[in-house]
Amino acid sequence: MSQRKSYAAGTGLFIVLGFAALVYLATQTTSVVNSHQGASYTVEAQFANVGQLKERAPVKVAGVRVGQVQSITLLPGKDVAQVRLSIDRKFDQVPADSTAVIYTSGLLGDQYVGLQFGNAKSYLADGGHLVLTKSTQPLEEMLGKFFGAGGTADAFGGSYKVNAHFTNVGTLSVGAPVRMAGVAIGSVSDVKADPVKLDATVTMLINGKYNQIPDDSAAAIFTSGLIGSQYVAIQPGGSPNSLKDGDQLVLTQSAMQLEDLIGKFLVNGSSSGNNAGGNGSSNQPAGKH
Amino acid sequence: MSARLGHENVVIGSLAQIGRCGLFLLRILSAVPRSFQHVRETVRQLWFVGAMSLTIIMTCGLFIGMVLGLQLYHVLSIFGGTSATGSVVALAVYRELGPVVTALLFAGRAGTSVTAEIGLMRATDQIAAMEMMAVDPIAYVVAPRFLAGLIAMPLLCCVFCGLSIFGGHLVAVDWLGVDNGTFWSNMTANVNVWDDVINGLIWKSLVFGAVISLIAVFQGYTTPPTSEGVAYATTRTVVASSIAILALDFVLTAFLM
């Protein structure tokens, strides 16, 4: 009988232990933890871009969770996101001029709202507004700023194609920028040798925003800096008509070859390349001494 | 010629085995209401297959969690994502490792002993004696063991998962220095109670428990009444259970995901 009792008790203990483990796993290691919340108050913040922020994402002050995102809606009639944050009643001393910033935890982590405290003496109350916000920084935008090219927004008109013939394109390659007044307005989409005219045809894609370029503008191939990459510069003309898709730029200035320039400079442009070459070769033995 | 015949015999033999197993399941299920007269026997079996398996389950769960924490930390540190260690340990354990490893251990620890016990009852004519005394052996011997396995598996699996999380925490946080708060908050952010704990853990372990118990009692009940037959039946329990667990795991994952 006593043996029977002992296994009955042991079995009961086993069952209790198993269920306790289940309850622990279900309530302590899952998202159920986050859905439980005590008394809280709601404040609103408006962001230009909420990125990947999700409902129930944490709201943190100095990295400590103080609440969660309650809802994300579009402000009616505007392209602004309205985010309602529910903040724990415990943390009721958030200055009214605090800044709400959307951060990403880690490189691949989820996004959360961080509150940076301001200096105001008054505190946020239920239904309050966070006026100062900082949106997410999309990675593409940051990279664009970093590389200097993609900072501008693309026009929804897309881009149009313009051709130009050059006698010499130098080292111009596909993807090189097309600049007007030093500002990138497009890029080179194709560089080909023309089999009939025996020169180079350069196809440029120019942003549809810039549709007022006169059609007698000149295209020149310049080098950015002394050893920089080459780009196509558009020098506007005076025609009242503007460039359209498929147009050709007639006035072109080819790439300057350094050797040509030096040759022109040294022998006043009139002498042949042979002479310059001879100079070069005769210098070599001297250099070796 | 004889080889081809042998192949056919193997195919037909295993088909027949599966068929007999299914019919046996129906017999057990029909005997379950009658087995409630012998609740005490079910409790005794629950003690034997469940509570007595706790030690091995807890030890293995701890080590599985520890090795997961160690491996994941080193792989995730390549990507600078060690903060995800907690959630990946939890997801891996809840969805796959917990139910499967518990089931394999359960088949080895409890399934074999059930097969051997029933097989020896068969070999020593105890089952025949019960039938002569008008005691239904299905209701008195087989059904309680089946029910005990069915109940014990999910509970064991929960304990296993709990210990795995603990082991992962031990290695990742206490040893390798992942932040404690990050470990838990990442886990709670990514583990869903319905998808991962209920669907992943409970359903899978229930199905595994039923399959292992069925194979174990079936092999024991139909064993040839010799000592050699009992030995073969025990081996077959482990082999068949392992294959069934791993195959069913795939099917269940495909359905429950």
Automatic annotation (TrEMBL), chain A:
<keyword id="KW-0472">Membrane</keyword>
<dbReference type="InterPro" id="IPR003399">
    <property type="entry name" value="Mce/MlaD"/>
</dbReference>
<feature type="transmembrane region" description="Helical">
    <location>
        <begin position="7"/>
        <end position="26"/>
    </location>
</feature>
<dbReference type="GO" id="GO:0005543">
    <property type="term" value="F:phospholipid binding"/>
</dbReference>
<feature type="domain" description="Mce/MlaD">
    <location>
        <begin position="159"/>
        <end position="237"/>
    </location>
</feature>
<feature type="domain" description="Mce/MlaD">
    <location>
        <begin position="40"/>
        <end position="118"/>
    </location>
</feature>
<dbReference type="InterPro" id="IPR030970">
    <property type="entry name" value="ABC_MlaD"/>
</dbReference>
<dbReference type="GO" id="GO:0005548">
    <property type="term" value="F:phospholipid transporter activity"/>
</dbReference>
<keyword id="KW-0812">Transmembrane</keyword>
<dbReference type="Pfam" id="PF02470">
    <property type="entry name" value="MlaD"/>
</dbReference>
<dbReference type="InterPro" id="IPR052336">
    <property type="entry name" value="MlaD_Phospholipid_Transporter"/>
</dbReference>
<protein>
    <submittedName>
        <fullName>Outer membrane lipid asymmetry maintenance protein MlaD</fullName>
    </submittedName>
</protein>
<keyword id="KW-1133">Transmembrane helix</keyword>
UniProtKB/TrEMBL annotation, chain B:
<keyword id="KW-0813">Transport</keyword>
<keyword id="KW-0812">Transmembrane</keyword>
<dbReference type="GO" id="GO:0005548">
    <property type="term" value="F:phospholipid transporter activity"/>
</dbReference>
<dbReference type="GO" id="GO:0043190">
    <property type="term" value="C:ATP-binding cassette (ABC) transporter complex"/>
</dbReference>
<keyword id="KW-0997">Cell inner membrane</keyword>
<feature type="transmembrane region" description="Helical">
    <location>
        <begin position="75"/>
        <end position="94"/>
    </location>
</feature>
<comment type="subunit">
    <text>The complex is composed of two ATP-binding proteins (MlaF), two transmembrane proteins (MlaE), two cytoplasmic solute-binding proteins (MlaB) and six periplasmic solute-binding proteins (MlaD).</text>
</comment>
<feature type="transmembrane region" description="Helical">
    <location>
        <begin position="100"/>
        <end position="121"/>
    </location>
</feature>
<protein>
    <recommendedName>
        <fullName>Intermembrane phospholipid transport system permease protein MlaE</fullName>
    </recommendedName>
</protein>
<dbReference type="InterPro" id="IPR053408">
    <property type="entry name" value="MlaE_Permease"/>
</dbReference>
<dbReference type="InterPro" id="IPR030802">
    <property type="entry name" value="Permease_MalE"/>
</dbReference>
<comment type="similarity">
    <text>Belongs to the MlaE permease family.</text>
</comment>
<dbReference type="Pfam" id="PF02405">
    <property type="entry name" value="MlaE"/>
</dbReference>
<keyword id="KW-1003">Cell membrane</keyword>
<dbReference type="InterPro" id="IPR003453">
    <property type="entry name" value="ABC_MlaE_roteobac"/>
</dbReference>
<comment type="function">
    <text>Part of the ABC transporter complex MlaFEDB, which is involved in a phospholipid transport pathway that maintains lipid asymmetry in the outer membrane by retrograde trafficking of phospholipids from the outer membrane to the inner membrane. Probably responsible for the translocation of the substrate across the membrane.</text>
</comment>
<feature type="transmembrane region" description="Helical">
    <location>
        <begin position="46"/>
        <end position="68"/>
    </location>
</feature>
<feature type="transmembrane region" description="Helical">
    <location>
        <begin position="201"/>
        <end position="221"/>
    </location>
</feature>
<keyword id="KW-0472">Membrane</keyword>
<feature type="transmembrane region" description="Helical">
    <location>
        <begin position="142"/>
        <end position="166"/>
    </location>
</feature>
<feature type="transmembrane region" description="Helical">
    <location>
        <begin position="233"/>
        <end position="256"/>
    </location>
</feature>
<keyword id="KW-1133">Transmembrane helix</keyword>
